[in-house]
Amino acid sequence: MKTKAVLFGIIATAFLFFANGSVFAQSAGNTNTKMQEKKEKVQAMKIAFISDKITLSAKEAENFWPLYNEYEAKKTDLQKENRQNNRNLKLNGTENMTEDQADQIVNAQLAQEQSLLDLKKEYYPKFTRVIGSVKVVQLYLAEKEFNKMLVEKLKENRQKPAMTH
Questions:
Q1: Would residue 123 count as lying in a domain?
Q2: DSSP string spanning 27-55?
Q3: 165 within domain boundaries
């Protein structure tokens, strides 16, 4: 019986996710399309993983997933901004950096981290109204576990030798 409920939750989740549209914007070009497909696959895996870790009733899932997708979209935007700042820092290096520039970079990084924390604080009461505090804790743990699993999988893929033809 529980397996049917989990399966229903995963299917309902996938439907809600794709019915609400993808979190990632579609880009032109073959490389961007492949990257987009990979992002969507990872997102679908994340949803299935979280669905497996936190058991939601049909009503909870119906209310939770649109809210979670909204949260994820905002979080992705904040992280994208941070990645761009890190790319700029990497490109420009630190050799010719002034103290003022270094202060600006550190303050920008701290502001970005604060923005992520503020977002989490904003959505915590919204999540608890829908699924309760215990399931929010389970959600946060599931997200961390999924991210850890994803990093391990990426490490494994990088260590595999390239196939030659």
A1: yes
A2: -SSHHHHHHHHHHHHHHHHHHHHHHHHS-
A3: no
| Total count of domains within the chain | 1
Q: Is residue 164 part of a domain?
A: no
- Model pTM? 0.70
Q: Which domain holds residue 137?
A: 2-159
Supply the pLDDT for residue 24. Answer: 43
Query: What are the average pLDDT values for consecutive 10-residue runs of the chain, which has 165 residues?
Result: 45 43 49 86 92 93 95 92 79 83 88 95 98 97 95 87 57
CA distance 112 to 71: 16
Nearest to 60 by CA among 20, 103, 102, 12: 12
Q: How many CA atoms lie within 13 Å of 12's alpha carbon, on the beta-carbon side? A: 21
